Amino acid sequence: xxxxxxxxxxxxxxxxxxxxxxxxxxxxxxxxxxxxxxxxxxxxxxxxxxxxxxxxxxxxxxxxxxxxxxxxxxxxxxxxxxxxxxxxxxxxxxxxxxxxxxxxxxxxxxxxxxxxxxxxxxxxxxxxxxxxxxxxxxxxxxxxxxxxxxxxxxxxxxxxxxxxxxxxxxxxxxxxxxxxxxxxxxxxxxxxxxxxxxxxxxxxxxxxxxxxxxxxxxxxxxxxxxxxxxxxxxxxxxxxxxxxxxxxxxxxxxxxxxxxxxxxxxxxxxxxxxxxxxxxxxxxxxxxxxxxxxxxxxxxxxxxxxxxxxxxxxxxxxxxxxxxxxxxxxxxxxxxxxxxxxxxxxxxxxxxxxxxxxxxxxxxxxxxxxxxxxxx
Amino acid sequence: xxxxxxxxxxxxxxxxxxxxxxxxxxxxxxxxxxxxxxxxxxxxxxxxxxxxxxxxxxxxxxxxxxxxxxxxxxxxxxxxxxx
Lengths: 376, 83
Description:
Number of strands of chain B: 0
Helix content of chain B: over 70%
Number of domains of chain A: 1
Largest sheet of chain B: none
Shape of chain B: elongated
Strand content of chain B: under 5%
Distance between the termini of chain A: 67 Å
Number of strands of chain A: 0
Structural class of chain A: mainly alpha
Structural class of chain B: mainly alpha
Oligomer: heterodimer
């Protein structure tokens, strides 16, 4: 194994780790609506979502093709550049997770890769048209579209079932959420797992492992490994969510849950079919807010919507800056595997430190809350 | 008014297709499922009130609407897989 092979192995491992954290991070978005309306028990919802995320990764490859061909020039990319882009995305995800900012893993990934390519090969290697037309404009349109679709859908649903007895109606929509939640998980796997596939495909092209670089095909092992990583991440993330469920998610009725999940699923699937790499987090949030706003404007957490906008504006440039800086750091160690290895160790240490510090903060906050609630 | 650069680089036809499919699919499936719930609840209520014809009609509405939902989901996924 030469140093090029070693860098490729590191890139694939880091990409799959990113995919795992993507599933881990997004479980809440996918299953929260079903659990909050009591349509599905938490454990069942998480397991169901994990399986359908896995299946979803096999549905389409259009988004992977966009990431591999339309964002940066594939002939200007090296595995080390992809590595730097991945680190940019992971580091930004870590920062936003630490400060509770609802950032998009997808935007971070694309931002990181663009920043690293820009630093390594200049502006000419970034495909501005593809970035604007396939990433930025759809990223603005999709959450608004999910908001409008969910709002219109729930208004129609209330007109149809508004005079029925609430008990059986709620039970009916809870049953429907089995399907809408399942399709949402499938859609999530379809769009999000493909971004990792696209990045691995870029690294394989750069390494010379893909025979036809002009029309690259995603190898089957890449599809299976990306599907497995996102499914395992979804399943692992679920156990953390089950513990915190019930207090953080505002209540919605099962018809709203059905409309929100349906809107999120159809927007993500339609966009995936056209090859648009969306932020599934923002689309699902748009659907939930649309279903809430149609019933009562005050039901929407407009502060969360504001945070999403702030995170949206910051993510692409911030991840790009970190990706560029990471490339600069690895460059100092030469073209071999030393740079990626050092950076991988560094990011692992930083992640562990952030996890320990955050869990201590949460533990202290929990103790303070318990002390405040205790009878004096 | 679309800025000239955006007009050139964005595939508005494809984006419009996403918007139309999302609106028709999202609103249509929710409306169809709402009709299925309406049909099922009214069918049970009619049967309880001993009105068999109404129960049968509402039951048929529920089955037709539910079939429409399932068909839409299967059709959507089949289109994605076939591309």
